[in-house]
Amino acid sequence: MAGKLTDVTDTNFQSEVLEATGPVLVDFWAPWCGPCRVVHPVLEEMDSERDDLKIVSLNTDDNPQTAARFEVLSIPTMILFKDGEPAK
Fold first, then answer.
1. Could you read off the pLDDT of 47-87 as tens digits, one per residue?
2. Phi, psi at residue 45, to the nearest 5°?
3. Under the phi-then-psi rule, with left for phi > 0, alpha for psi from -120 to 50, and beta for the rest, what region is 28?
4. Contact 40/3 with Cβ under 8 angstroms?
5. Contact status, residue 56 vs residue 13, Cβ threshold 8 Å
6. 33 has catalytic annotation
7. Cα separation, 81 vs 63, whole angstroms
8. Which of 17, 25, 26, 33 is catalytic?
9. Would you call the peptide bond into 41 cis, given omega within 30 degrees of 0 as the criterion?
10. Alpha-carbon span 26 to 6, nearest angstrom
11. Among 50, 63, 47, 49, residue whose Cα is nearest residue 8
12. Could you say which of 5, 17, 26, 36 is catalytic?
């Protein structure tokens, strides 16, 4: 499902998201999630139009540690990170 968006994992989340120089929007999703499949093309379009925002996707089934770390209890969930922290 993750078409043009960069896939992040438990392994590379630190370098791709938390250490990123600009804001990063993380899409927490899973292959079986219908609403996730609806949202994904919109995020891909946004990613192609915005140079000031990096949008990545994290499969919660394959990367449960990161999803648990940020208390993702339902999907789709999107969290915007700025300076290595979830934005308020």
1. 999 999 999 999 999 999 999 999 999 999 999 999 999 99
2. -65, -45
3. beta
4. yes
5. no
6. yes
7. 18
8. 33
9. no
10. 10
11. 63
12. 36
